[in-house]
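lol ok so funny story. i was supposed to be doing the assay writeup but got distracted and ended up predicting the structure for this chain instead. priorities right. anyway since i did it might as well share w the group, maybe its usefull for someone
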Amino acid sequence: MSVTSQIQRILMPGRWPIAALLASAFMLAAAHAFEAYGYPPCKLCYDQRNVYWAVIAISIAALILQRVKSSDKIARIFAVLLGLAFLWGAGVAFYHAGVEWKFWPGPATCTGGAGRWDNLDVGKALEGPQLVVMCDEAAWRLLGLSMAGYNGLISAGLGALSFIAASRGAKG
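and the output, tada:
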């Protein structure tokens, strides 16, 4: 089977949730690997990760529903939902990249502004010095793009593939 025909099979609406789940799991694993190698995440990094967790939940729901009641319409709806989730993730990632490039301000809680405190913050402060990871400083760049920039491109690509899957015919 050629690579093209394998890709076409993956992009069937009924099969796309598996690919979306695996892609999200890979992206989360990569994020945790960067963290393990000394690149701690900031608040916006966690926001980007949360989108992948949401995609995993949507994918699992799609796979369960396909087992219970398989239909092309339901498969296409879930492919669209996955596409919207990935595009949301791309938006969060590009927003973060823009904060890193100082195109716009980021959240005051992670760009050096005076954010609000709550009881958990006070408790942590009493434990000793806390590492505050700044959202407006790219910890890593490759060819001019930060992790947030690459994540934005990957999320946008996965969103586009989701919409391609939604536009395709019969379930895989």
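The longest strand covers residues 141-142. Residues 98 and 104 are 6 Å apart (CA to CA).
back to the writeup now i swear
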